[in-house]
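Re: duplicated header lines in exported structure tokens

Our pipeline writes sequence and tokens for each protein into one text file. With two proteins the header for the second block appears twice in some exports. Here is an export where it did not happen, for reference. First protein block:
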Amino acid sequence: MIPQNIHHKDSILTFLKTKTDRPCSLKEIAKTLHIPKTESRSLKRTLKSLISSGDVYKTRTGFYGLIEKMNLFTGFFEAHRDGFGFVLAEKQGERDLFIPARKTLGAMSGDRVVARVESQAKRDGSIIKILERAQKKIIGHLYQEKNFFYVKPKNRKIPFGILIAPRDRSGAKHGDMVAVEITSYPALTKPPEGKVLKILSAITEPLDEIGMIIEEHSLPLKFPSVVISEVKELQEKIPLRGRVDCRNLLTVTIDGETAKDYDDAVSIRKIDSGYILYVHIADVSHYVQWNSPLDLEARRRGTSVYFPGSVIPMLPHELSDNLCSLLPRKDRLTFTVEMEFDRKGELIRKDFYPSIIHSNERMTYTSVKKILADRDPAERHRYNYLIDSFEKMEELSNILREQRVRRGSLDFDLPEPEVLLDLRGRPEAIVRAERNLAHMMIEDFMIAANEAVASYLEKSGGPSLYRVHEKPDPSKLDELKPIFNALGFQVRKTGAAIFQSVLKKTKGSAEESFLNIILLRSLKQAKYSPENIGHFGLASTCYTHFTSPIRRYPDLVVHRILKESLGKNRLTKKTLQYLEETLPEIAAHSSKTERTADEVEREIVSAMRVWFMKDKVGDEYAGLVTNVTSHGLKIQLKEFFVEGFLHVSSMADDYYWFDEKRYCLIGRRKKKAFTIGKEINVRIERVDIEEREIVLGLV
């Protein structure tokens, strides 16, 4: 059921944008818009909502003005361990803002804030209002000093302690690891306060560490009982009415070995003029209705969170692993994107329809690689009836990828760590995750489907959610040029062309990984938005997320919008109004939950690395220098996919200084140089589980 709008936000925004050139009082707004006194409470609620959304700012004197007209902007604060930070702008085209430590207003990492730009040249400013707090809970050690208690956060981005009143200790003692609820946030004149929620067990196993990270980020492990009740009522009945029967198509899913939620399947046909590709996506919207308890819980979670050996799903397992999962040799409800490409990879026809499929096989990336790249006789014999389809898929994939690279798409082939666990949940190996031709094939097909859906919805003129990626800030790119030149990659191009130039020149070099990372850091984060501004990284004028509705909430929303826009009644006026009201909020929340999931996954991998290395202190390994700073060297071990840091103070054979022009550390006496890509032998000196650091020594 779609709720009605309580008040017209648009009329207030239009008035503040076009009818006045200054902030206005509540009375002025009500008088100009002819809003009677009986509706003043509703008007206040609407203005409060506009303040929360970051469109309007209320001054100290009680006047309302547009944020964009007041040299202010909204964004998310990213804190540094030394107290300063940056506000990452929400609005497209705005550059990030540096915030000195004394001007953070007590904001913590992830908080949504309003900031004032104080210097356009230096691009710095101050936070003047905190719209939404990201952290309500922190994990840390409780300490006692004289008559007061405080918790030192484990998260190093929080540079202050949390005061705990003696009555709020919940029995915790000095040195205990505790979970704390923040009851009073930091301000200029006072530190934050909190109360102990529970005392955490000592971390003796890697699984304890994973549990602590989940606890710190308040990730929901259990589904509410009302959601479980709703799931139990769902039926596995497969309705044929109103669906295209695709069960006669040769169809496969291709996923990783450990995957359980298969939300995409593919089929292909070759015709005289080119290819017809079918991308079948699980029809989650058939089971999850707007604003049902199941939908609201999925929206709150935003995304599934994956980590070694487990997952915190967006949807209950009954849906994600069964009803909605495109299991082999079972009829399943899907939404199909049918695309016809010519021999050059140009999309000449697209069609969308609810469908029903019967997946012939659950394939893995490894198996498809064995068939196509390795030409493994046993694998080819086992899947003999699929070989022709796979070879057609490989042909089309190559054509689509070449076309995308020509238009300017960026392919950051960054190695990812894969943590392999033993039966007790302990890391037994950390390896470089493989990205083979099967991964790229599915990636190419999903990108094509996402673009097809996005362009259709944009042309239809109705509201939708887009996956957007802004162009990089030219000044940030200019700052990188000296690094490229110092490493011997002369870059003469400017703007976005730098990316293609550097990626091409560094392919296969020792510096490739490092330069890919710093290029990525210079880019803005991709996010969700109800406004289409294109996707820079994919060089796409129109892009969305449609292909993973089991694990991403925006995909589920796009499914619903597409389904309604194709229906007989199209999008009703009531639905249009609801979407225009709700999509900005869904986009912001989904972007936020995605960032949280990424952070959790990074933290867990970082923790697994130190647990894996903790019993290897004193061992010696060969490694490669992956980064050079004035503080020392980052070293990637050759035997394991693990990095450690060699501090310059541990390099006792000489005095070393950082040469910015050559981007290397050089010994003053022996002139020995350490550059990116140099092979080096190191010893594991110390592994700090608490700080998640691997400290190296020079052999």
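Second protein block, exported in the same file:
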Amino acid sequence: MAVWPRFRPRLLDSLDGYNGSRLGTDVVAGFTVGVLALPLAMAFAIASGMSPASGIVTAIIAGLVISVFGGSRVQIGGPTGAFIVIVYGIVVQYGVANLLICTMMAGVMLLAMGIARLGTWIRFIPISVISGFTKGIAVLILLSQVKEFFGLRIEALPAEFFAKVEALWAGLPTTNPQSVALGIACVLLVALWPKRWRIVPGPVVALFAGTGAAVALGLDVETIGSRFGGIPSGLPPFALPTVSFAELGPLFAPAFTIALLGAIESLLSATVADNMIDDRHDPNQELIAQGLANLAAPLFGGFCATGAIARTSTNVRMGGRSPIAGIVHALTLLLVVLVAAPAARYIPLTVLSAILLVVAWNMGEWGEFRHLRRYRFNYQAVLLATFVLTVVFDLTVAVQAGLVLAAIFFITRMSGLTQVRELETPGTDGAATDQATPAGTGAARPVRVYELFGSLFFGAANKIEPLLALAEPTHPAKVIVLDMQKLINIDTTGLDMLSTLHRKLLRNDKRLFIVGANAQPRSLFERSGFAATLGADNLCDDVATALLRAGAGTSSATAPMGD
């Protein structure tokens, strides 16, 4: 229960000093975002293999919960394009009922992550991985909208990439010219809508203009009414999904994928909003809100939701500065459902597809590919690998591979930075002078001093291996001094190498001194018992003390021992 005193939604802080002026601004911002969310919620749901009503329900329920319990003052939650590919795959493979269960399982995972205060861990995912899978998802969204945009007569699109491409190619002869013309007009309207008129978002204008044109001209295009029969005038009744515990095992992996993507996108959206309003969100509180939202939405027929970057940015630009704007956004959508639901049956699916195409195009930020050559090979490889794997396989495989690849590159880089340098002619003052011993001399010195630089972890522990030769009984060295003042970190593998060196020296009547160990290495020495094994006299604060204890007294200079 000690966790719960830290459970504090930002809504409570935002109400301090709240007044009528701020309320007016939040209401305008929330209403604008609510109107914008209407076509997006329906488009995301249809592209995900769900009904448009389920998208609106998700935006209402999840958006309300995220605003009330969230850790950001301006976050707008709801269904997003990033989930389209994942949700569609789950619906095709497991069905809608199991999607709702997957969403609730993801909600439990997100809630647990927030309570365990793992919000900051999400930030450890490299930007190259995030950028790669974001671009991959954008490609998949673009591909998923080809059927609706061209009005192709395809019964159902496969979830797998190559099968989907094959199905679309086979269906191209059934292209509907009227659907294509209407779609192109809507894409241009959304893309070219003047920013100075942003109080009425371009997608909303395209929704009304495209629907009006289709009705007025009598275009032969598929609509929400012809496929789904329209949208109910009200929220679906509360209902608990039927859970079969025998089926939960296969659902764990897709549920984890939903939770991971929801955590990443929500915290990324909150970070973008922080930069816009000079604020700082609570990542753990935000994860708790995301968990509650994904638990609540399926109870009314909704599906997975997260923080929406585009809607959150619109909220900020329209002046929203508290969760009240997010609450108004949800209530606006509810009002639309209660009042204008019957008119939704006339909305052409081509119009919603056109809106999604623009969203996906903006989501990809394709200009980064042009500038990719400016970055190191490591960044390029991780981004491109994540991108390709997201498109060809799925997000889970892509993120796992991206993280492993990024970790390998990081280990290699840190290993290269770690150095062991010999002080060739040690002196009593522990400093390096400009008088270096000529190469080839001093090989028989009984005291050898080495400076360790960087991090002695499992990827760089082999840098100690050359010192093991000094512990041989035939080697003239009698004392080894390791200066660790520039060593910032050591792990158990590095400690094991030091222990091996110490045992081998001790076995041959030789001595090891550790000098200037920083807080982290010293803590590990003490906790592992290595400090006691080495002996307090062999742990020194500076090289001079170690040399005096070793009975040495020569001048010093530095030279690289080699990597």
